[in-house]
Input
Amino acid sequence: MDDALRAVADPTRRAIMELVRDGECCAGDIATRFPAMSRPAVSQHLKVLADAGLVDVRRDGNRRLYALRPEGLADAAGFIERMWSTQLRRLKEAVENE
Amino acid sequence: MDDALRAVADPTRRAIMELVRDGECCAGDIATRFPAMSRPAVSQHLKVLADAGLVDVRRDGNRRLYALRPEGLADAAGFIERMWSTQLRRLKEAVENE
DNA sequence: AGGCTGTGTAAGCAATGTCTTACACAGACT
DNA sequence: AGTCTGTGTAAGACATTGCTTACACAGCCT
Output
């Protein structure tokens, strides 16, 4: 979970995830979506995401295709839900005490 | 969202959130739960959490009581759900193509 | 008033993270 | 074989983070 949450804490990486969310995308295409940043910078972000299990990588000849791997967020989602459920429980209690 | 996700990326801060999850807790009590760390370090983490809107602070005489504020995670939860839904949609499509 | 108790803040330092440029290397094309 | 295209990796500069110790200050108690 630690790797995933640390990876997701960066806005560029979140943007990349949104990009590859709807299907595979190759490194170069992803990089051109961030004109303000050099290509190696994007490549490093992709590595962080891959190491955290948030994206899958597949080689296709010359290129590398990246795709979202939502399961990587499972633990993070679990944490948030655990926090969230507190609110729901409190809400429930508040309603019951009405 | 950025502040919340950055705050949540730290394991100590997540532990603090779990601690104050079930009710208010004062700064000192929280700090004693982290014997490996100095009290000011914990105080700084609490500030980060408060600034990110993940905890509420309330003064009670001398002490400061912290409590979880789950709404602070709303945007983060939204992001995760947006990623997550991709998987669900794909799963659905896979089932339909069976 | 004076001295605890509880907490936040300031300054400084070591570790980490995020870029950039330069380079390496595999796969496609001629 | 030679070269181009696509992409990762290495090294280093710079900013940010997470700690520590020392200090500041408000609120209670006598």
